[in-house]
Amino acid sequence: MLNAQIQTYAEQFETASPFEILTWASLRFGDKLAIVTSFQVTGIATLHMMQRIAPRTPVLTLDTGLLFPETQDLMDALEARFNLDLRRVKPRQTPAQQARDYGDRLWERNPDRCCHIRKTIPLRDALVGFEAWVTGLRRDQSPSRAATPIISRDARNRSIKIAPFANWTEETVWQYIHEHDLPYNRLHDIGYPSIGCWTCTKAAGEDDHRRSGRWANQGKIECGIHLPLPAVAEHAVEA
Ligand code: SF4
Predict the structure, then answer these.
(1) Which pLDDT score is estimated for 122?
(2) At what angle do helices 41-50 and 170-179 cross, to 10 degrees?
(3) Each residue's pLDDT tens digit, 55-65
(4) Is 239 helix (H, G, I), strand (E, B) or coil?
(5) Torsion sign (Cα): 99, 227, 168, 23
(6) Residue 239 lies in a domain
(7) What is the percentage of the chain residues whose pLDDT exceeds 90?
(8) What's the CATH number where 60 sits?
(9) Is the beta carbon of 107 within 6 A of some atom in ligand 1?
(10) Residue-level pLDDT at 229
């Protein structure tokens, strides 16, 4: 897809609904489309909508080996409920192997490298063979996501990235979840608005942005899979 076409679609999609965008993506990319989700609420809304569009679209989730048990339970429940083609993408190293090669608790000393090993490289490998992927990014999640385009070229993964919910708010997504009686991560009820690895996720304060509990006090707010290439190149390790 040419950059000019992407730009045209990006403008058109500003006034389209997520359902319309997902329908377009499914028709345009067919079996070369993947959904990537960590089972936050926007991802769950995506999976629910896709049930009416293309229910067997592959679903990739980054199973770092360090997820909360609550997240694992939710993944199992949604896999069964929606009969998902769920692919749990694992890093090449277990946490123990990583500790052997890079030292214990790498996420405390060098979280960028840890995310690179456990998330960025595995996603890049898993997306080989797909032409486009759907993400649950929203503009209201953090200042770093405020300009998220609904469709863009993803140079890191040589793919097209589609964020159908980019201009939805957290409130709208929760409304959707409750209206459709969808399950969600129980940790949301005890102050965790955004949930990643248990090692790097804390509850957030009432007035904090929704990703403030991720890598709290480490000066990091993104794992790297959504950052442009140059921003993480200096941390890159060989795949
Ligand atoms: S979120 Fe933390 S533990 Fe998980 S991959 Fe990133 S740095 Fe490592």
Answers:
(1) 97
(2) 50
(3) 999 999 999 99
(4) coil
(5) negative
(6) no
(7) 79
(8) 3.40.50.620
(9) yes
(10) 65
Among 115, 197, 200, 223, which one carries the catalytic annotation? 223
pLDDT tens for each residue of 161-214: 999 999 999 999 999 999 999 999 999 999 998 899 999 998 876 666 665 666
Whether residue 223 lies in the annotated active site: yes
pTM recorded for the entire structure: 0.91
Record the tokens describing residue 238, joined without a space: 């060989």
Residue 237 has pLDDT above 50, yes or no: no
41-50 vs 18-29: helix crossing angle, rounded to 10 = 60
Mean pLDDT on 12-40: 98
Structure tokens at 78: 């949604």
Assess whether the C-beta atom of 118 lies below 6 angstroms from ligand 1: yes
Separation of 128 CA from ligand 1 center, angstroms? 22
Say if 90 falls within a structural domain. yes
Instruction: Classify residue 236: in a domain, yes or no.
Output: no
Token digits for 182? Answer: 């969808």
Ligand 1 centre from 115 Cα, in Å? Answer: 5
Say how many domains are in the chain: 1
CA-to-CA dists, residue 151 to 7, 44, 60, 73, 159, angstroms: 8, 19, 19, 31, 11
Q: Strands of the chain (E only): list them.
A: 33-36, 59-62, 86-89, 132-134, 151-154, 159-162
Contact 209, 142 (CB under 8 A): yes
**pLDDT value at position 193?**
87
The CA dihedral of 231, 233, 234, 236, to the nearest 10 degrees, is 130
Domain with 50 in it: 3-231
Ligand 1 pocket residue status of 47, Cβ below 6 Å: no
Q: Would you say residue 12 lies in a domain?
A: yes
